[in-house]
């Protein structure tokens, strides 16, 4: 793309003067003005383009400007741009039916929201109303959104400054074999001990007070933590034993990220409520929702559900969702994600781990991977501390800068680099991106003691 420095300056001036940004000290940021994007690439006004290995916020599953999604939104805008949620609408119903068809047996209904946080808010609301129990358990090392209950459920530093927003939340440790909270020495032992810990938490918090357990099926931003065999079925069994609703937060991993419609489908478990957003329509128009098991949905057959949103099931968002289903099915997206993950990413990351002393562990599935960086492989001391900022975060910031300089937009979080490109990335682009990360990790190796 040609440089256009006048527009660059104008966009910067409006942004710096008037846009208040998420999660930031406003005077300490310098957002990159973006001129456009196509497929797995976006570009700035200075003539640089970036291979998008973060899919923006791990939502852009079908890439920038997918022609089918753009056409569906345009067509819908020409037909009926909006309609309120109490009326029935063709695309809204079409999308809800398609979602229930790829969900497990017995999930007929979908409640649409604007995004992931309010999907989780409403799932928790349903669980509380159905069980008559208010407390919710969630994991440390998790993210569930930034509204009041969702941020309280969150198990990372983004919760800290917002406390206490919802007094009825308690946290537990999930499985994380590489940094086990349970001193376990195998994935099986990690699952077993994590389940013992969860059961003790339930007993000590009081099963009679707990309405729901919410967890990310595969923990996303907090580390691409794949549950060890048996863990999720074990959580299901505890929920059944103690009369607790199991909520799977599929906001980041649903709709193809790990090669499944819903990630839990790879783990032999069926939750009671499924929350989704992001990949449902690649974020072209904000959309999220809750897929509701018939048992829970039927509670509201004759009792009014006390929740709603002006834009619930917005036709433009739903039209992009319907187009997403058509593309996934026509282009075999789930199969391609599994294939690229197994055949291209897994072996390449294993080779990088063998070569770079800064890599402590690589893990993932489909097109969702983490490279965990350490100063010392023996002690597993993270390359940067938990919640590192400023000078403490410099080593990972240097890796990110090297990626950007080479034309790749990375996803980094604390001591990790994640690999989360659009699911439509070509194999050549994928290999080129992995080449860039491989080279950038030379920078991390310099910090190894
Ligand atoms: N849940 C998970 C697992 C997420 O990754 C996110 C966003 O990153 C959310 C919930 C919140 O979604 P939203 O930002 O659409 O509210």
From TrEMBL:
Pfam family name, one: Aminotran_3
Record-linked PROSITE patterns: AA_TRANSFER_CLASS_3 (PS00600)
Sorted UniProt keywords: Aminotransferase, Pyridoxal phosphate, Transferase
Top-level taxon in the UniProt lineage: Bacteria
SUPFAM superfamilies: PLP-dependent transferases
Molecular function terms from GO: transaminase activity
Family: Belongs to the class-III pyridoxal-phosphate-dependent aminotransferase family.
Protein name: Aspartate aminotransferase family protein
Record lineage: Bacteria, Bacillati, Actinomycetota, Actinomycetes, Micrococcales
